[in-house]
Amino acid sequence: MKSLRLLTWLDVRRIIRHQTKYGRKFPDGVARIRCFSDGLEIGLINEKAKNIATNTLKEWFGDWYQEEESVIQLDLGDAILPVEFIPDEEPCTTDISLRPFWEEVAYLDGDLNIETVVTKLVKLPEPYVEKPSLIAFYSFKGGVGRTLCLAAHLFALLDRAKEIDKAITILVIDADLEAPGLTYWNRFEKQQPTVSFIDFLEAYHYSPIGREETLSWFAKEVEKSPKNEGKATVYFLPACLEDNQLLDTPILPEQLISSPGSAWECGNAIHSLGQAVGADYVLIDLRAGLSEISSPIIFDPRIQRFLVSTINDQSVRGISLVLKQVAQIAPSKAKVDDESYYDPSVIVSMLTPELKSLPVFEDALSRFQSVYVQPEEDNLYATRLEIKETFFAQDLLYVNNWEDARFKLSQTTVMQVAHGWAEEQLQIATTQELLSKPIEKHERLTDVRRLRELCQQYEYAEQGRGEDLLVTEPLKNLASSFREELPHIVSIGAKGSGKTFNYIQLSRFKYWENFLNRIDNKAPQFIQQTHIFPLLESSNVQDNAKTIINEARNEARLAFNNSVSEFLASEFRDKIKRAIVSESWSEPEWTEFWISEMSKAVGINIEAESPTILGIINRKLKEQGLRIVFLFDGLEDVFPNIASSKQEKIALKALIDDLPKKLSEVRQSHLGVIIFLRRDFLRFTITQNLKQFENLYRSYDLSWDKDSFLRLVFWLCSESKVIGAEKGNIDSLGKEELEKLWGKRLGSDNAKEAYTASWVFAALTDFNGRLQARDIVRFLYHAAEITVNRSKEVQFEKWSSSRLLPPEAIRRALKPCSEKKVEEAKEEYPEFKAWVDDILPKYTPEERKIPFAVEQFNMEQQTVRMLEEMGVIYEDKEKQEEARFYMPEIFREGLGFSGKGARPRILVLKRKVLGNGIL
User: Fold this and answer.
1) What stretches of 320-368 adopt beta strand conformation (E)?
2) Residue 461: its pLDDT value, please?
3) pTM for the whole thing?
4) Are residues 301 and 331 in contact, defined by beta-carbon separation less than 8 angstroms?
């Protein structure tokens, strides 16, 4: 057993409290155990129970319990604590309701689940059904910015109320009865309070008149010193009126909850006072540290609690300890979701860019998440603990009054965080929403069906659906870079990133100038003169897309007076394949082949051996007043063996490397080329200076950041005519626009769930920060499909008044997306397919969990590198353990890996990759 250290009788009591779960679990036959400074009393139900009791003491105290003398030996000198057994006692009740004190929560049975604790031991308080809302601010140590956070939230409420022209009343209470801060700020105000928080506690606890009468009297006193701002009124209750009052505080918050049945009376008292003054919000500044002055508020789940911490080790350890205790009596997630109770939030304060780059910052976030309650679902981005970040501001080091605080906070991130919270607290419906009639459930389902059908059409660009182009950053860059000159670029993207979609849409424009005009319709309009000629397309394009592509080709043929024979893409593909098999060309010879085929496609026939072939073609185009941009897509169809075929590698390198260079060397070139290339083909083709090659075309890289992700979702909504999305608003898209689609959060707007847009973005993004357009479209399809087919299961009727897609439909949509993502990756990467089909089946579902060590799955280094490049796995290099490899959600579910226990670290790593505010 662990070595004991018994200095005083209090150490003996601690062991007994731990073993009996604070007097709730006595050994058989034992009626009670009482520990005093001069002895230990053990009440027995009968004399026979003495053997059980003595054996229990031996088990608990080992050699420190001396049975013959019936004493417990203490470690200070020869001191002892006598043990007395008292027979024939009645069993005392062990059904004791836990009170919100640190010492009582600390001795809860760690083996009990939270649901058992909160239903049998804690007896959570009845939720508040009427205003005011109570908001408390706590820190483990002083000097971390707790009081400033409260001030910022007060000012944010006032700003928001003014913004929406709403009258509100706020009561601010300085409940720090040992080191009050707000009380001293308020001393600079002209109108001073006539009562204090100490006065209130004493009068509430020992009222000589009826409690309602006491509350009414205090309300009138508080109302004597209002501070008005617009339609808002602020009342302040200081900790004390005079400093001497702090020296004699016989009644503290802990006294209010000491008597039976009054476990939550402290919160009730403050709530009642708030009601008496007509407050909408009560903001409470608590005492720092593990003080029972603060514990009745910190454990009360009816109160919004902000725990403020720096990344200083003492502060992190302290807040983690507090979170762990609060977690032991936390309400169920369902009760938090229905807004009966709140989970706490953490505000990490005084950060700098340098501090955020340190491992201790990530460790702090991970630690906070890991000690609090973990959601039951396996999804790794679900969390019950919200963590916000604020940065250090030099001006905040010295603040000594309300006016000073408001001025110095105004431009800080502390204020930004507070404003975000205030917007959620004070929401307002638009006039249009207020006047519009309620939409029937079947009408909303009709909208969901339209969204589902459109996403099903757009999932694969080869169908050629849709006549509009979503203007993304790469397309903007393409237009701005090549308004005068023609492009000679490679647009790189993974499978499903939008290569074929852009290829088809460019073909639809037929002229380069039409594309330029569409991208920037405010600039002077260009006259049509540069043809777009789709030369090579994917073999999977369907009839509608083929029609669009052929119309672009035929438009170019007309410019050549129909002298050009019809171009057949299938013949061109066959010609390339035959050359790969039958010829052994060098890179220059393959470059000549590509140039020759481009010229033939537009009716210019020149001997391939001519050293000035490009100049001749360019001159002929000039003579006819024509310019042309060739498009290449579907290269994976003509180069299926790129990983192993030397000739395919040479042919592709000539196309993507040598051809653009040569075209760029032609003066006043009338020839342009845009080559859409799948990203994984690069590593087989550009074997030297790969990064340099990627950087050359980075501006046209088909990647999706959060802004373009949101625009794509909005664009799909506008295409399917749901949520009132209008394409004209896409460039000024606000975060509120998509709340009509999927809500603000994955739950009610005031819940501590993740913001829906951020959650979806994080869930679909890998650890390389990559996101595919097809995954976005597919995700929306499945969310809509689940909503339509399982409307009752996902509680569509409950959520339909505020959003189109319910939270549960959003959560469930991830799994089918992940499964399809894995299937497509298997087609794209043969080595990945071998790993998934041949290696993974050897391991049971129980063995597939993250984090993991590569040795667990006998993974060779080549496989590890491949999976890292694909974004399937990520090595947490800050960890020293062997099991330090993680997996993003978009792959994890499809590969059948469990993430339980990994959530805290996953959240930290995703924040690191995607940036602050994502989760």
Assistant:
1) 345-351
2) 59
3) 0.75
4) yes
